[in-house]
Amino acid sequence: MEGKVGLGLRRDIAEEILDSRILTPDFLEFAPENWMGMGGAWKRVMDRAVESFPITCHGLSLSLGSPEELDWQFIRELKSFLDENRVTIFSEHLSYTKSRNAHLYDLLPIPFRRDAIDHVVDRIRRVQDLLERPLAIENVSYYTPVAAEMTEAEFVNEIVERADCKLLLDVNNVYVNAFNHRYDAKEFIGALPLERVAYIHMAGHEQVEPDLIIDTHGQPIIDPVYDLFEWTIQKMDPVPVLLERDFNFEDLEQIQGELTQIKGILNRHWEVTHASA
User: What's the topology of domain 5-269?
Assistant: First the structure.
């Protein structure tokens, strides 16, 4: 799937994707929690997707930074889902989403601290052992650092190295954080272990104040994010790239235009199998 461009399978656009009317992704991404245990009509939709496209999965609820024990029953069910659906890449957020077993329905930042690194590395290693596959962890957007002892790049690097895992590089999240926290996005990306990137995410955001951007996955990608993406891919080998769109599906041609624009950037710099298509 190196150099392929995918789209998340959302119920609002599932029929459009599977019938190939306007949207033509190369692969699909599931949020497994939204499809595990599904039956009936939506199970048939999922089965069609698996038969028609390569599949990646991007998890929402491992909660790698939480203090309580991992949910091993859920992880066993997740393994079955990934295996049954021939999932090629499984990724999760470098964040936490639960506290005292309460789901917070948000991706909250893990403090950039050494004790947090020890905690997260141990959890990633144990998850990988049970899943029998590498985990790709995503750099998340955050709006305030919490008790930081080091930079975010140092934090990510040490976790990836010690856990022997992969990295999901979200270029829009880097842009959002660089804008909000006033650092250089290219310098940040250049400090990451790009040889460990398994996957890239691209998305849109919303500027709500002159000095604040919110990561939304609901707006078109802006030119500076495309520019950062183009700069980034020249530093690394080909990997799959996903367009994240979580809502605002009214203009499907605009979404297809983003898929096409991402492919065009890849074709300028990577030799990929769809380059002549």
Answer: TIM Barrel (3.20.20)
